[in-house]
Specification:
- The chain is mostly helical and 227 residues long.
- The chain is 77% helix and 0% strand.
- The chain has nine helices and no strands.
- It has helices at 3-24, 28-31, 38-62, 67-78, 85-91, 96-125, 133-157, 159-188, 200-218.
């Protein structure tokens, strides 16, 4: 087993453990929160699956970016919520039901939306990246829906056990994520200087700023949803 495969396995495992820990603190009502609020779901869908992919595609087609950066921007723009984000949102004051509901809704929609959006971007903007429904489904089930459902079931059956182990498992997942990411940072650190002056940093900053602005404007009707 190579170092790359070990790192990838550690990152995938940390994500699954993190989502499982979220499930231990969640209920089925939390998971289906946005499906009962179609207006909020529509705004989240618009910001994540329309505005950001279109913006990424415009940047990719308008500027002479490195092919790897083009693929990364498009992949980020169509990806569902990163499973590590709900904890950040909750710590920032976001509502648990909205945060967990958004994770579940966007993960389920991603199974159909991601391949469809990538096909559209490929035809319109010549973006060289595609994914099948089956490959997206496997990723979503393995890293998000499976662990989350398992955690919710344990929360329902043994709430005391779930609450006792949720935080330690969340901490464990963070440690695993850091340990898994360290080899990547160490091996690529010497190349960071090459990103300055060629448009890479400016492109990533613009992507982040537009993403934050879009999320803030369409993040929900209540201030506690916006983080």
């Amino acid at each position: 087993m190579t170092l790359a495969s070990v790192v990838l396995l550690a990152l995938k495992t940390s994500i699954a453990v993190n989502v499982f820990a979220l499930g231990l603190n969640s209920t089925l009502l939390d998971a289906t929160h946005l499906f009962h609020r179609p207006k909020d779901l529509a705004k989240a869908f618009l910001s994540m699956n329309v505005v950001m992919p279109v913006f990424a595609a415009l940047m990719v087609s308008s500027f002479a970016l490195h092919p790897a950066l083009k693929i990364a921007l498009v992949a980020l723009s169509v990806a569902p919520i990163p499973p590590v984000l709900p904890n950040k949102a909750l710590k920032a004051g976001g509502r648990g039901s909205y945060t967990i509901g958004l994770l579940v809704a966007m993960s389920l929609l991603a199974i159909v939306v991601v391949p469809t959006v990538l096909q559209i971007l490929q035809r319109v903007f010549k973006v060289p990246i595609t994914m099948s429904v089956s490959s997206v489904s496997l990723i979503v089930v393995a890293t998000v829906l499976g662990p989350l459902v398992a955690g919710i079931c344990i929360h329902r059956i043994a709430p005391g056990f779930a609450l006792r182990f949720a935080n330690p498992l969340g901490l464990l997942s963070t440690v695993m994520l850091v340990v898994g990411a360290l080899p990547i940072l160490i091996t690529t650190f010497s190349s960071f200087g090459l990103l300055v002056g060629n448009g890479t940093i400016a492109t990533l900053v613009a992507f982040v700023v537009v993403g934050l602005a879009t999320g803030h404007l369409l993040g929900g009707p209540n201030p506690e949803d916006r983080p």
